[in-house]
Amino acid sequence: MNETVLERLRGLSLEVQAEATAKASDRQVLEEWLESGVKFAALGGPLEEAYYRAFRKLFDCIAPMVDEKPVLFEGGGYSGCWMESTGTINSELLSRFLPSVARASFLLFARYQEADGQLPYKVTATGPAYRQIQMVTPLARSVWNHDELNGRDDGFLRIMYQAMARYDEWLAAYRNTRGSGCVEAFCTFDTGHDLSPRFWHVPDTCHQDDARQVDPGSPLVPFLAPDLTANVYCQRLYLAEMAKRLGMEQEAALWEKKAGESLAALYRWCFDEADRFFYDRDCQDRFVRIQSDVLLRVLACEVGDREFFDEMLERYLLNTRKFFAKYPLTSIAMDDPRFDPFSGYNSWGGTSNFLTLIRTPHAFKHHGRFVELNWILNPIVSALTRMDRFPQTLSPWTGEAGFTETYSPSILCLLDAVEQLYGIMPRPDGELWFSACLPYPQDHGQAVASETAYSRRVDGMLYEWTVTAKGATAWRGGEPLLSIPAGTRAVTDRQGRLKRVIGMSVQKVEGIVRYGAAELPFAVEGNEQLELTEEGFVSVEKPGIVFPVHG
């Protein structure tokens, strides 16, 4: 069976898959993708067809903007590159496939920094825009991960570091009017929460289209915003890492001190001990008690330890009364009477959003919650195989496509999920993850795929990977490298040297790892990590599993 799906993978032509692309810049982008060696094949379902629809549609979201260098566009009718998404998390994911496009997209924001330090919230063909801040994923984290993954370019890192350091000063000067140490939201679009009840009766945009001004007549804003404050906390942590890389130890220590101050302000002003939730605090010094995806945004900024994250999973993220819909994760808790499930328009009032789904994995991986992440990604992959377009939203009840089409976050969601679940994922820390999961036919019993195969070139060496119900096998340069049972993940370095095995299933997996001439018996539970030593596998992490709850 493995040979059949492997032969299919080797026979696939990306040039044929990309035949419909037509822009002059598409050939340049295709050449870079071909250099990555990334291909995907699947048998027994529609997953392969959906994957290459995403592959082709991605080209529609990439084009030159201000010079000859292609950059990533938001798509879906949103013109240009947006800080909250295209310029951060979208490009962070894209770095694994098209690093030059991601790099050019990051640099757009430094290029158009204002003299006072403000970064644009978007850049379009008509120029930059500054009327709100629209921050979600920390730019510094995305830049750092891109640079670590793609060979370390100190020149690029220094440009971005200096721009982000100046922006930190701007935020401290203009978004701390109440002196709390939190970052303040002046309007709905500061966090990109269109139509969210979080911002009912608050202006959509900043006063007089000036991100330094708040509506003086508002009875509610400025909010002390937990997601914006967490963003700056995480931003400062990564700026500290950049300063160390660039040989600025004193600056690194200062960033770490500032990060600690942001974290303290976040918990002091925005965390409700009774609900164990992060809320805005309005200008009347009251909590804005809307349980929203703000929680996930804070967690994705690396706030809290694993014990805290596990508590948030059980109370909220894996709770079917809160955010764990049939097609998760909703943007408002489902037990809130203001929850709006409709997905036919641009809304953060309840429906599941693909931007949330590409922001989600970082938090789960950061805390080693791999099995729980699968429960979120699996229904989304299934839904995407049934869609005829790539929307911004999807119905949390049915998984049907919602608002707009050719939206780069949903396109990247599928490309990212396939690599996380069934592929070969390069990591910023120098590891390669070979994941041996298979999609389960959970929607009406319809199979998504019965076997999969994936390839990727790393440092000039081609790796190939096949996954079936019987197990998974990796090849390096055409030669067998290792085999593991389904329901696990093999972790190697970039040279293919085996380091660990991770349990990716709710069930305990027992079997043999074949690595070189060795046959290594093992047993691994969900989320458990086994390290390979001279004596065999040794358990180094065994956090157990956080199970879904129903209220």
TrEMBL record:
UniProt-recorded name of the protein: MGH1-like glycoside hydrolase domain-containing protein
Organism, as annotated: Paenibacillus mesotrionivorans
